[in-house]
Amino acid sequence: SRAGVSVSTVSRVLNNKGNVDNVLRKKVMDVVKSTGFRPSNAAVSFRKGMDSIGVIANMDDETSVKVLKGVLQVFSQRGVWFRFVSCNDPGELSFDKVLITGDMPTPMQIQAQKKVYAGTWCADGVSVCPNYYHSAFMVGEHLYSKGARNFILITGEIKKYKHARFYAGFLKAMYVKKIDEYSVFHGEVSAKFGFETTKKLPLIPDAIICSDDVLALGAIKALESEGINALHKTIIAGCGNSLILSTNYSFVTVETFAENIGIKAAEILLNDLYESDSPETILMPTKVIDHLD
């Protein structure tokens, strides 16, 4: 803190790695000498010749936490040292390699030679994501097999990768099954939006498909407020197999196997065959989970 720089900058100066301005480098070294500073493992990160690794996670997102569990499993097995950074951490973020789990609530400036995104997608690195397109398609087919013939889709903004792919998969299912009776609503991924959208429907459909379990929870609450018969008449489907739907309600969801995504992403981060200058998207399998009575 005396030098007024981040831990990652101290690490790069001490290891003589990365692009650090000469004036800043001298400032750091002067403080090190004047204070007798002995860097901790977090500051040095790795001895010379080894990569500094950062993990940035959105701890407010349940799926991101599940992904992180898989990442930590691999790092623990391989004895990997890393620096954990909250997505709300201020200051400069610079690593040799960085793994990002889940969507970040605010844009972040991250410098790294290699970036791997786990559970989300970005164009400047390797992305390991659930196959949301196929997930929505499978849900549509599954609900059709249950007798649904008119559908509502409630999804997040399609500028987000997850919701754009889920929306496309839903449209494909409607096309294949020759379903003309459907409507789509885009908005905030929240129980409130799921609730309000469902409450405003002029007619209760056979099925309400949501691109996230949070939206599905709102839809369930809205139908519940209309009476138990309404809840039994309509099939609710979400995505994520989240704890928030661990209720006595009947519903369908998609298991994204988030922990496996974290394992795969961590293995890719440590594998030098995958390079950031060759962006790649790796789609992981999902499964429809039927909790209908």
Core attributes:
Rossmann fold, 434 Repressor (Amino-terminal Domain), single chain, four-stranded parallel β-sheet, 10 helices, alpha/beta, six-stranded parallel β-sheet, 293 residues
Put the structure in a nutshell.
With 293 residues, the chain is α/β, with parallel strands linked by helices. Among the domains are: 1-48, Orthogonal Bundle (434 Repressor (Amino-terminal Domain)); 132-257, Rossmann fold (3-Layer(aba) Sandwich).
For CATH, the homologous superfamily of the domain at 132-257 is named as Response regulator
For the secondary structure, the number of strands is 12
Helix content: 25-40%
Classify the fold: give the CATH topology of the domain at 132-257.
Rossmann fold
Alpha-carbon distance between the two ends: 59 Å
Please identify the top-level CATH class of the domain at 132-257.
Alpha Beta
What is the SS-derived class?
alpha/beta
Give start-end ranges of low-pLDDT stretches.
Answer: 41-49
By CATH, the architecture of the domain at 132-257 is named 3-Layer(aba) Sandwich
Helices, by number, come to: 10
Anisotropy-based shape:
elongated
SSE series: HHHEHEEEEHEHEHEHHEEHEE
* Proportion of residues in extended strands: 15-25%
The residue-averaged pLDDT reads 82
Largest sheet composition: 6 strands, parallel
Which strand order spans the largest sheet, edge to edge or round the barrel? 2-1-3-4-5-11
